[in-house]
Design brief:
The chain has about 200 residues and is an alpha+beta fold. It has a single domain, classed as Maf protein (Alpha-Beta Complex). It has 5 helices and 8 strands, in the order βαβαββαββββαα. Strands 1, 2, 3, 4, 5, 6, 7 and 8 form an 8-stranded mixed β-sheet that branches. A hairpin with a 4-residue loop joins β7 and β8. α4 crosses α5. It is globular and about 50 Å long.
Amino acid sequence: MAEKFVLATHNPGKLAEMKSILSGLGVEVISPAEAGVEVDVEESGTTFAENAMLKAKAVCAAAGLPAIADDSGLCVDALNGGPGVYSARYGGEGLDDRGRCMLLLRSMRGQTTRAAHFTCAVACAFPGGDTLTAEGRCDGAIAFAPLGDGGFGYDPVFLVPEKGKTFGQLGPEEKSAISHRGKALAAFAEKLGAYLGK
């Protein structure tokens, strides 16, 4: 009998990714809708890890099941680590992914330092009060123009130097092998495996 975990996301891509990673541990990942809960959590944390844990604890409390959440974003050296935890809200509510990419490129105009990294924090909260966390990071640079139409968010402007391509130009498997989320989920799966084996 697989243990059920609720993934605190409405993103079908994230749900599919988490299902494939955790199925090997005998874990069944379900959406909040499948668990019969709808929770809107204000991401008031100052770090990715805090925001992920806020979401995991809220969904765990509502569903009465272990809950997994992640929070991730883009940190740009020339913008003092911004947009950081505000990546999804960068430029305000009216902007879509493309609008945020273009705003980022405008704010980078004239910058010679283009170093940036993506960070992802994964948090898991259990009904008994136990928690697990893991983080992943992928270093790169901000491209001078959007390239590729794969992925989502800032993928078309995030250049991976060793690949000579942006995340937007990489296929899903190639991206998840090196991405911040791929690394965080791999580290999390290892910790969860050890926890469930106890």
